[in-house]
Specification:
Keywords: Iron, Metal-binding, Signal
InterPro entries: Pirin (IPR012093), Pirin_C_dom (IPR008778), Pirin_N_dom (IPR003829), RmlC-like_jellyroll (IPR014710), RmlC_Cupin_sf (IPR011051)
Low-confidence stretches: 1-54
Number of strands: 26
Mean pLDDT: 86
CATH topology: Jelly Rolls
Number of domains: 1
GO molecular function, one term: metal ion binding
Strand order of the largest sheet: 1-22-19-24-17-14-13
Order of helices and strands: HHEEEEEEEEEEEEEEEEEEEEEEEEEEH
Distance between the termini: 7 Å
Radius of gyration: 20 Å
Protein name: Pirin (Iron-binding nuclear protein)
Number of helices: 3
Cofactor: Fe cation
CATH superfamily: Jelly Rolls
CATH class: Mainly Beta
Shape: globular
CATH architecture: Sandwich
């Protein structure tokens, strides 16, 4: 680990700083104005989330269905140390989709994973679908996610942590989703925090004669509310399973950006002349106009389909991302690199810190 820190980290920071000051840092939004013109033609609002004390949203005959802007395959690639991911947000197909910065559908086996690394300026939502994952940070926090559990992490002004897979008895991979969510500019220097949500805590909505099951992780569905607010940036996160012949029309908050990621099976999206079939491992990006989205599975399908439907309030701010640092200007990114290297302004506890769970990756 000493060799790792003495060689890799200074080299990383030096190269990163050089790239920064040669203006090669990727402005992921290009500029906020250009991004909005090209991608999100709507006026933004201050953070405003329908809480469980507010009225429920229901589909009616007057509801307007959101159109599909695009649907594309999440191509598998390597990430971290030996992990395999299907990334859809954070790629040339969809650079970012405010407030969403990245979506990875990951698969990791023992010996692979995400060893010690920093973050600043964003929140991450990790949803484990299969297996188990250990996590540990430089503040001494440790824990394990099992299948069906979620972890919401706010990086704020700075955190270092590791995420490593458990050894499954059958040798199978540990599979899940990780979503990066931008923080409002005024909260990017907040204290880091964790919130875990166990699968047993997640409320469930059953509709269409039980042919559709909705796990209400965050938000609401058909009169069922999530149990608690888990992120600073308002986000709805629904895990929807549809059996053959099942249908669901799901309302969404007005003007929020929304997408769906197909985890399993073939899904029919939209109604009437807007209907289209989308296969597994695709990201479906919806237009902002409209009240509801519609999904169904053909009655003759051989298996159920499953998707994650996610929506969030857009943030009216630039996005400047360099690796794990997400700020609103190049100067802030340069400062994040400096703070990380000098163990200051949020990274003090990173000096000489090494996670127990990540040691196997550097020995």
């Amino acid at each position: 680990m000493t060799l790792f820190r003495s060689i890799f980290i200074p080299a990383f920071v030096a190269l990163a700083a050089l790239a920064l000051f040669q203006n090669r840092i990727k402005d992921t939004a290009t500029s906020n104005f250009e991004f909005l013109k090209a991608f999100t033609p709507l006026s933004f609002h201050k953070i405003n989330t329908p809480h469980k004390d507010h009225h429920h949203l229901y589909a009616t005959e007057m509801s307007v269905h959101r159109a599909v802007r695009k649907a594309f395959l999440a191509v598998e690639q390597s990430e971290g140390a030996g992990a395999r991911v299907r990334r859809s947000i954070g790629t040339p197909q969809l650079r970012n989709f405010s407030p969403f910065l990245m979506l990875d559908h990951f698969s990791v086996k023992p010996g692979a994973g995400f060893p010690d690394h920093p973050h600043r300026g964003q929140e991450t939502i990790t949803y484990l679908l299969q297996g188990g994952m250990d996590h540990e940070d430089f503040a001494g926090n440790k824990g394990t996610l099992s299948a069906g559990d979620l972890q919401f992490m706010t990086a704020g002004k700075g955190i270092m942590h590791a995420e490593m897979p458990r050894q499954n008895a059958d040798g199978s991979a540990n599979v899940g989703l990780q979503l990066w969510v931008d923080l409002p500019k005024e909260l990017k220097a907040c204290e880091p925090r964790y919130r875990d949500l166990r699968g047993s805590e997640i409320p469930i909505a059953k509709i269409d004669d039980d042919k559709v099951t909705v796990k209400v992780i965050s938000g609401q569905s058909h009169g069922i509310d999530s149990v608690k607010d888990l992120a600073y940036t308002p986000v709805w996160f629904l895990d929807i399973e549809i059996r053959p012949g099942g249908k669901i029309t799901q309302p969404l908050p007005a003007n929020w950006n929304a997408f769906a990621y197909t985890l399993e099976g073939d899904i029919i999206v939209g109604k009437d002349d807007q209907r289209r079939v989308v296969e597994q491992y695709h990201n479906i990006v919806f237009e902002p106009e409209g009240d509801v989205v519609h999904f169904e599975v053909d009655a003759g399908a051989s298996k159920s389909a499953r998707l994650a439907l996610i929506a969030g309030t857009p943030l009216d701010q630039p996005v400047i991302q360099y690796g794990p640092f997400v700020l609103t200007s190049k100067e802030e990114v340069a400062k994040a690199l400096f703070d990380y290297q000098t163990h200051s302004n949020g990274f003090e506890r990173g000096e000489n810190w090494q996670s127990e769970i990540g040691k196997s990756m550097v020995e």
